[in-house]
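Minutes, methods subgroup
Present: GH (chair), OT, SY

1. OT presented the first of two proteins processed in the latest run. Sequence and structure tokens recorded below as shown on screen.
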Amino acid sequence: MPLPFHVAVPVRELGPARTFYRDVLGCAEGRVDAGKPPRWVDFNLFGHQFVIHEIPGDDEASIAGRNPVDGDAVPVPHYGAVLEIPTWTALAERLKAAGVEFVIPPRTRFAGAPGEQRTMFLLDPSGNALEFKAFADIERQLFAT
């Protein structure tokens, strides 16, 4: 099993971002900064250590640009996770039920090609772009050319 990655991202306000990652995405909360008020929170993002850091007024926590990928304007930068199809499908349904507005709605990309995948893009409350994707055969398709 690969080791989990660690990523930390800036958020403008910790409260709305914390609620989003915990309650909307369903990530288990880990450590929380002991400061009063706290400035960062760890989450379990599908087995990876994901940290939000409050940087008030930070305009860097947003999309810098977009690149065309299989007919979509993909936000850059972005981060997320590769999931098993049942987990991806459950997350897509959870997000739809929560009324999340997608940048790119759940869809299949590269249909019929070696890298065929399911993908969806959304923004957190600070404008950070997230992508969640799934493959029928992760080991064979993730890096397929």
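2. SY then presented the second protein from the same run.
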Amino acid sequence: MGKNYIESAKLVDKNTLYTPGEAMELALKTSKAKFDETIEVAVRLGVDPRHADQQVRGAVVLPHGTGKKVRILVIAKGDKAKDAEAAGADYVGAEEYIDKIQKENWFEFDIVVATPDMMGLVGRLGRVLGPKGLMPNPKSGTVTFDVSRAISEIKAGKVEYRVDKTAIVHVPIGKKSFGAEKLMDNFQVLMEAVVKAKPAAAKGQYIKSVAVSSTMGPGVKINPVKVLE
């Protein structure tokens, strides 16, 4: 561990569950890197991801965005391809991009949007896009004929949340430069969406633990009972 991390860790009491506001201030205070660090939230859920009826996945538009420029690839043809280009997608096409990904291992994009009629084609990429979390999905709004709306929402700060194998959801909520107030706005909107996405099959305590941290800083634990206060 680096000197800055060790110094930052001293400011955080590992045995304390902070309020969201206190945790956000600490995450900023312990962010000491020279670049504009990303602030990320990790939520451990009371679900068993091995069961299909306990999956937690969705997307939400953060009011202040993420501070990151997102490169969008749209798989579409005809008028929908023209719509995507007009809406500002970075890459628009069909077979040529499927081949480029398969044959050239090309991944110069952050998110993929596809029209439903192209999913048969996109399905060929399941093995490479799936593990990277890039596979288009109707639940996250990335499989749609309304490509213009999908692109505008992504550019406005739409983020996808998805529970991993360890029942944890990791989501960036902005940059250090946002300041505590904007980060808190984004945090609240994210947590409301995650709570709303609780599967009917999930029993017992749903929000097990919550932590916030900067890219290079220590995790700050948030009292799960107070996440929506």
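Chair's summary of item 2: Helices lie at 3-9, 20-29, 78-87, 95-104, 119-122, 126-129, 147-156, 180-196.
Next meeting: continue with the remaining queue.
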